[in-house]
Design goal:
Blueprint lengths: L2 E14 H5 L7 H10 L1 E2 L5 H10 L6 H14 L7 E16 L30 E10 L1
Antiparallel strand pairs: 1-3, 1-4, 2-3
């Protein structure tokens, strides 16, 4: 069949995985799991995201188990504990390219007539976050 390549530009949150994981408690465990599920590692070559995805797919249910599991897994697997997690909050632009492997250039544009602010109220309980522009590229 071919493959799909996707590029997305978003506004979002950046946080060191160690800072996020160490904040897990009964009150915010659901939010942090959501951040981990929708986020990705800031990574140039996908190696870290490959490992990260395997770890996130096996998250335990219990809050204390989640924290212990993530500390152990992120520490022993490629030092992910010291990597940044990028969590998209507001999508600005996205494009897909379908087909077989091929060389070439694609582009897309959008008028700058939109609001660049994002609502991060639901993340107020999470400390040490930074608002960033995220460019995410994937191929399947």
């Amino acid at each position: 069949m071919g493959r799909c390549e996707t590029a997305t530009a978003s506004m979002g949150i950046k946080i060191l995985l160690s800072n996020l994981v160490l904040q897990i408690n009964e009150t915010n465990v659901a939010l942090i799991k959501e951040m981990l599920y929708y986020g990705c590692i800031e990574d140039d070559n996908d190696y870290d995201n490959e490992i990260y995805s395997r770890i996130i797919n096996d998250l335990p249910e219990d809050c204390s188990d989640v924290k212990e599991y993530l500390v152990n897994e992120f520490t022993k697997n490629g030092c992910l504990f010291d990597k940044y997690l990028l969590v998209p909050v507001k999508r600005l632009l996205s494009m897909e390219r379908w087909g077989y492997d091929r060389d070439g250039l694609n582009s897309i544009s959008r008028p700058i007539d939109f609001d660049l602010s994002i609502n991060t109220d639901k993340y107020n309980s999470i400390e040490n976050t930074e608002i960033v522009l995220i460019l995410r590229q994937s191929a399947y």
